[in-house]
């Protein structure tokens, strides 16, 4: 059975870490055996991997990078994996170098980011520059989560000839909501059955540009009586003074409901009638795919791979333009309820056909197969 060794910077719960977890746990019936190396100890996902029966080795590169690098090199030589797949910059650099020094040419790097100048530390910037230089020698293939990530890294010197795009896959079994749960939440929010709820979901962050959403909502509130606005995510609550000031400026604060961070994301999405992505920066916006999987028509800003993701099942508008965002949502509101549902079902069908966990696993396993065949020839 071919052996794939994954190297990742750490195992706190994040986008890359969850993508790795879904890939491995979704591959139990495949012909590939997976093991994981974390460059730093701890993290909630480590325990989940162990509970799933996945072999996990943790180093501590922050405490002693040189000695632990040689430990990683020794592990590579001892395990002799068929493929080494790395996730995030530090793992790309350390894991890729260790694999090549151990004689393994079947190295897959993973790139997950699109914005390369927004608040990165000096160490991250340096590691990225080193990776750009190493990209012509260390990896056989560089997998980007989004075409926007591919373009951004090609611009800073990565070898574009080695880069391909494998988008995230969604676990559709988790994206379900019972009707009584949805009705209860809408009742708790004070939404009537005939009100149309425009929603957004994501932590309070400059890149998510909630101010853009609120300004657009204010414009919509002036023209549409039966529209309400639902905001879900960390720090999207009444304790956030800046957020509350923005909402007050619309003159329609009574139209907004803030739920903060929630664990019942599918229910929150199902309580919406239209989903809105107002971001100024994204790579592959998972939340849009989740909303689509729940059958929601989506209005998204043209960031990262959002336009590619929605295709003809949603509306794409320029980023940082609240008037355009309001106009895009207004176009969806002008549809009949049946037409909105049809658009949402088209979005759902697109996710089910192209962006499932199984589809992502198939794409990665095609890369594994190609690499192992090339190394045997």
What's the layout of helices and strands?
Layout: E1 3-8, H1 15-25, E2 33-38, H2 44-51, E3 55-58, H3 65-79, E4 83-87, H4 89-101, E5 107-111, H5 122-134, E6 141-144, H6 147-155, E7 163-165, H7 179-189, E8 196-201, H8 210-223, E9 227-232, H9 241-249, E10 256-260, H10 265-270, E11 274-277, H11 286-293, E12 298-301, H12 306-310, E13 314-317, H13 322-333, H14 337-354, H15 357-376
Parallel strand pairs: 1-2, 1-4, 2-3, 4-5, 5-6, 6-7, 8-9, 8-11, 9-10, 11-12, 12-13
Helix pairs in contact: 3-4, 4-5, 8-9, 8-13, 11-14
Summarize this entry quickly.
The chain has helices spanning 15-25, 44-51, 65-79, 89-101, 122-134, 147-155, 179-189, 210-223, 241-249, 265-270, 286-293, 306-310, 322-333, 337-354, 357-376, and strands at residues 3-8, 33-38, 55-58, 83-87, 107-111, 141-144, 163-165, 196-201, 227-232, 256-260, 274-277, 298-301, 314-317.
Structure report:
The structure is a single chain. With 377 residues, the chain is of the alpha/beta class. The chain folds into two domains: 3-169 and 357-376, 3-Layer(aba) Sandwich (Rossmann fold), CATH 3.40.50.2000; 172-354, Glycogen Phosphorylase B (Rossmann fold, 3-Layer(aba) Sandwich), CATH 3.40.50. Helix content is 46%, strand content 16%. It has 15 helices and 13 strands. It has helices at 15-25, 44-51, 65-79, 89-101, 122-134, 147-155, 179-189, 210-223, 241-249, 265-270, 286-293, 306-310, 322-333, 337-354, 357-376; strands spanning 3-8, 33-38, 55-58, 83-87, 107-111, 141-144, 163-165, 196-201, 227-232, 256-260, 274-277, 298-301, 314-317. It has a seven-stranded parallel β-sheet with strand order 3-2-1-4-5-6-7, with helices on both faces. It has a six-stranded parallel β-sheet with strand order 10-9-8-11-12-13, with helices on both faces. Helix 11 (286-293) crosses helix 14. The longest helix is centred in the C-terminal third of the chain and has 20 residues, at 357-376. The chain is elongated. The two termini are 18 Å apart. The mean pLDDT is 93.
């Amino acid at each position: 059975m071919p052996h794939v060794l994954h190297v990742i910077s750490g195992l706190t719960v994040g986008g890359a870490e969850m993508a790795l977890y879904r890939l491995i746990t979704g591959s139990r019936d495949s012909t590939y055996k997976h093991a994981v190396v974390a460059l730093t100890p701890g993290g909630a996902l480590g325990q989940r991997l162990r509970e799933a029966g996945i072999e996990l080795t943790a180093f501590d590169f922050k405490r002693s990078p040189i000695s632990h690098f040689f430990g990683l090199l020794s592990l590579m030589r001892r395990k002799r994996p068929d493929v080494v797949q790395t996730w995030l910059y530090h793992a790309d650099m350390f894991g890729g170098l260790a694999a090549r020094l151990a004689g393994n040419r079947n190295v897959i790097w993973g790139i997950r980011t699109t914005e390369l100048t927004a608040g990165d530390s000096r160490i991250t910037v340096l590691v990225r520059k080193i990776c750009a230089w190493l990209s012509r020698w260390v990896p056989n293939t560089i997998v980007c989560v989004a075409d926007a990530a591919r373009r951004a890294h090609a611009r800073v010197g990565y070898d574009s000839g080695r880069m391909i795009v494998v988008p995230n896959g969604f676990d559709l079994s988790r994206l379900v909501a019972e009707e009584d749960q949805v009705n209860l939440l809408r009742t708790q929010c004070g939404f009537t059955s005939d009100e149309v709820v425009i929603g957004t979901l994501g932590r309070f962050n400059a890149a998510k540009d909630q101010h853009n959403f609120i300004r657009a909502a204010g414009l919509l509130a002036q023209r549409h009586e039966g529209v309400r606005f639902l905001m879900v995510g960390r720090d999207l609550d009444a304790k956030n003074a800046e957020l509350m000031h923005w909402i007050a400026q619309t003159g329609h604060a009574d139209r907004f409901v803030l739920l903060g961070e929630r664990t019942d994301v599918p229910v929150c999405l199902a309580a919406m009638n239209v989903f809105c992505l107002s971001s100024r920066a994204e790579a592959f916006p998972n939340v849009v795919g989740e909303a689509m999987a729940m059958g929601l028509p989506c209005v998204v800003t043209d960031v990262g791979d959002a336009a590619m993701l929605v295709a003809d099942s949603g509306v794409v508008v320029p980023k940082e333009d609240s008037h355009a965002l309001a106009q895009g949502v207004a176009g969806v509101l002008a549809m009949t309820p049946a037409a909105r549902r049809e658009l949402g079902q088209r979005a759902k069908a697109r996710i089910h056909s192209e962006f499932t966990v199984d589809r992502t696993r198939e794409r990665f396993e095609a890369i594994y197969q190609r690499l192992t065949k090339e190394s045997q020839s």
